[in-house]
C-alpha cells in the first residue's frame, strides 16, 4: 500500500503557492478588513489547492509512460510505481470533488470558475498543450481564473489594471517555463549520440526557437513592468486606495522580473515558478518586500 508521503508528493503541495493569486483581489480590493471575505478567500484558496492537485494527478496518470523515460520525472509516485494508477485515480477524483465542494460553499461564481479551471486543464492535457503559443496562453488562463475567483467569486469587481498586469505576468511565467524546457532540450541534443534523433517530451517545443522565446519574454516582462508602473501612478488608483505611495513598490517588481530573467538565462531556471520562489533568496526578498510595502501603502 502506498504511503501517505507518496500521496502527498502526488498532490505537489509546493505548487499550491500559485493559488496565492486568489488573494490578489482581497489585497487590492481592500477586503482584508472584512472577516467574512477573508474566510471565503481562504476556503477558495483551499478549493483551488485541491482542484489543482487533482489536475496534477490526472496529468501524471496520462504521462506516466513518458515520465518513466525522463531522468527526473521517473521518480514521481505513479511513474516509479509507488502509487498504482487505480489508487491515483481515486485520489484525483476525491480531490476534484473536494475542490468543487469548497468553491460551491463560497459562491456559485466560484464554483463556475473552479469548474472552468478543471475543464481548461482537461482540454490542455487532451491535446492543446501541443500547440505552440496557445499552450502558454492556456497556462496564463489558469492563473487568470484564480484572479477572477478571488475577485468575482468573492463579489469584488476586478480592475482592468489588475487583469492586464496579471495577464502579462502570467504570460511571462509561461514563456519562461518554455524557455527553460527549450534550454534543457538543447542540452540533451548536445549530449546525445551523433545522428541519433531526440524527440522532445513536450511536442509544442518544436514550434519554438530560442530567439522567439527570448523576444516573447522581453515583451511580456516589459508589459508587466510598464503596466504595473502606470497602475501605481494612475489617478483612479490613487483615488481608490487613498495613497500615491504604491509607486515605491515598483523597484521590488523590477528586481523580481530581472532576477527571474537572470535565473532563466544564466542558471537554467524558470521551469517551475513555485520552486524558484521557494528556493531563490533574491526572489523571496523581492516578493516579501513588495508585499510588505504594498500592505503598508494600502493601510495608509
Describe the structure.
This protein has helices spanning 4-11, 24-28, 35-62, 64-68, 85-106, 108-126, 134-149, 160-191, 210-233, 235-241, 250-266, 273-279, 281-299. The longest helix is centred in the middle third of the chain and has 32 residues, at 160-191. The protein has 2 domains: 1-158, Orthogonal Bundle (Tetracycline Repressor, domain 2); 159-300, no CATH class. The protein starts with a helix and ends with a helix. The protein is built from 13 helices and no strands. The protein is globular and about 55 Å long. With 300 residues, it is an all-alpha fold.
Label this structure with key terms.
single chain, 300 residues, mainly alpha, 2 domains, globular
The share of residues in extended strands comes to under 5%
Q: How big is the Rg?
A: 20 Å
Number of DSSP strand runs: 0
CATH topology call of the largest domain: Tetracycline Repressor, domain 2
Helix content: 55-70%
User: Architecture of the largest domain, according to CATH?
Assistant: Orthogonal Bundle
SSE ordering: HHHHHHHHHHHHH
Amino- and carboxy-terminal Cα gap: 54 Å
Unreliable segments of 5+ consecutive residues: 189-199
Largest β sheet strand count, sense and barrel closure: none
CATH superfamily grouping of the largest domain: UbiA prenyltransferase
Q: What is the residue-mean pLDDT, rounded to a whole number?
A: 89
The quaternary organization reads as single chain
**Tally of DSSP helical segments:** 13
Indicate the CATH class of the largest domain.
Answer: Mainly Alpha
Shape: globular
Q: What class would the helix/strand composition place it in?
A: mainly alpha
* Number of structural domains: 2
